[in-house]
Write a structure and sequence with these properties.
This protein is of the alpha/beta class. The chain has two domains: about 140 residues, FAD/NAD(P)-binding domain, CATH 3.50.50; about 200 residues, FAD/NAD(P)-binding domain. Helices cover about 30% and strands about 25% of the residues. It is built from eleven helices and 24 strands. The strands form eight sheets. The chain has a six-stranded mixed β-sheet, with helices on both faces. It has a four-stranded parallel β-sheet with strand order 13-12-11-17. Helix 1 runs parallel beside helix 9 and helix 4 runs antiparallel to helix 5. It starts with 9 loop residues before the first strand and ends in a 24-residue tail after the last helix.
């Protein structure tokens, strides 16, 4: 429907260029009754399910990211802005940016995502980086590669063992995939690259506070994932929580109260999420209820209570699903939430009232190293619960289909094919600072 002459177009403002924001913008792309502005503090859309592949050197950053302007360049009614949203004035219907420039709206879609939560121990972030951005992935890649380089040069056996010990906190999909990739790197990729160390002696610890890893998967899939990780040499510690982290060790506590100190120089965080600072600002400005992670508890149409013009979607919201469970924080949750919010805006302009949001579970897939993984895809029936190679093939297919940009798909397929046949990882570059490991007692020259 074309807007009538003289009638102002409905202004839709989307904060966040992740899955929820991008798919909302795409849904609105051909509706001439409105104009869309999408603002993000990054100029690109990031395919976050493959971030761990950047962190472990399997793919390059540019393979899983594409500029928002490039993706949306054909959408003439869509404007892309680079800016960080920091505040909301619901009475004036304006979003405040960090540089002071306000953005007006008639409908607002809050899709600014989330960050990792350290459960009140924010100081741990220095020694245990999380994985939510490209910067995080490159920092983790630097730390992993530096660890092996340091172990190669360290003369003292105890300190060498510290460098070859890795602790991953959190047994969800991100933690499991990181642990599997690390096991593959140590036992296979780097096996012939070093002379003073045997990389296969690396100790990889996956720590999960709940009784099993992949807690959102069926119990048999969790058990299968654990077995596959252990075959890669990883030690899986369930019902165990982290109580302290420093630059040389991690202290964990088991369910019986006993504690253990794990000497380790590389700790990676994959546990818990916390809503973004802009979501907190929206909740404060609208007096909206939030859960313990700061996500907004939206209504059945994904709107903020008392503000039908404001939608919160993806990781910014507690999207309703089952009576005792909200939509999980996966890409499909963001995609479906963003599309629904966009369709709600369009329906209102047409004088219609669509049904409440309904999440369709497309299933879960986690890959565990080379040719291994687990799946839980309910709509495939018994075929949806796979392990090993079939699960890996499903994971590969799904991720290729959802990668943004045809060129990205071609590049990633080529890289994965090369890695598959050569058992290598082509992006093992140490970048950032410091570039050199802090060696305490270097190995003397031969």
């Amino acid at each position: 429907m074309v807007a009538q002459v003289g009638q102002a177009a409905h202004r839709v403002l989307i904060i966040g260029g992740g899955f929820a924001g991008l798919y909302a913008a795409r849904q609105l792309s051909k509706d001439e009754r409105l104009t869309t502005t999408i603002a993000d503090r990054r100029n690109f859309h990031l395919f976050t399910p493959l971030l761990y592949q950047v962190a472990t050197g399997a793919v390059s950053p540019g393979d899983i990211a594409q500029p928002l302007r490039s993706i949306l360049r054909r959408q003439r009614n869509t404007t892309v802005l680079l800016g960080e949203a920091v505040g909301l004035d619901p009475a004036r219907r304006e979003v405040l940016l960090a540089d002071g420039g306000p953005l007006g709206y008639d409908s607002l879609i809050v899709a600014s995502g989330a960050r990792f939560s350290y459960f009140g121990h924010d100081g741990w972030a220095r020694d245990a980086p999380g994985l939510k951005s490209l910067d995080d992935a490159l920092e983790i890649r630097r730390r992993i590669l530096i660890a092996f380089e340091a172990a190669e040069r360290e003369h003292d056996p105890g300190r060498r063992a510290e460098w070859l010990t890795f602790v991953i906190v959190g047994g969800g999909p991100t933690g499991v995939e990181l642990a599997g990739s690390l096991g593959e790197i140590a036992r296979d990729t780097l096996r012939r690259d070093f002379r003073s160390i045997d990389t296969r002696s690396a100790r990889i610890n996956l720590v999960e506070a709940l009784p099993r890893i992949l807690p959102t998967y069926p119990a048999d899939r969790s058990a299968s994932a654990r077995r596959q990780l252990e075959r890669l040499g990883a030690t899986v510690r369930t019902a165990t929580r982290v109580v302290d982290i420093d630059d040389h060790s991690v202290t964990v506590e088991r369910a019986d109260g006993t504690r253990e100190l794990i000497p380790a120089r590389t700790v990676l965080w994959a546990a818990g999420i916390l809503a973004s600072s802009f979501v907190t600002a929206v909740a404060r400005a609208t007096s909206a209820p939030t859960d313990q992670s700061g996500r907004i508890e939206v209504q059945s149409d994904l709107t903020v209570p008392g503000h039908p013009e404001i939608f919160a979607v993806g990781d910014a919201a507690v999207q309703p699903w089952k009576k005792d469970r909200a939509v999980p924080g996966v890409a499909q949750g963001g995609i479906q939430g963003g599309r629904y919010a966009a369709s709600m805006i369009q329906a209102r302009l047409s004088g219609e009232t669509p049904p409440p949001f309904r999440y369709r579970n497309r299933g879960d897939v986690a890959v565990i190293g080379r040719l291994a993984g687990v799946t839980d895809i309910p709509w495939l029936g018994p075929f949806g619960r796979q392990s090993g190679f079939p699960a890996w093939v499903l994971w590969l297919t799904i991720h290729i289909l959802y990668l943004i940009g045809f060129a990205n798909r071609i590049v990633v397929v080529v890289r994965w094919a090369w890695s598959f046949f050569t058992r290598g990882r082509g992006s093992r570059l140490i970048t950032g600072a410091p570039l050199l490991p802090p060696i305490e007692e270097p190995e003397p020259p031969a």
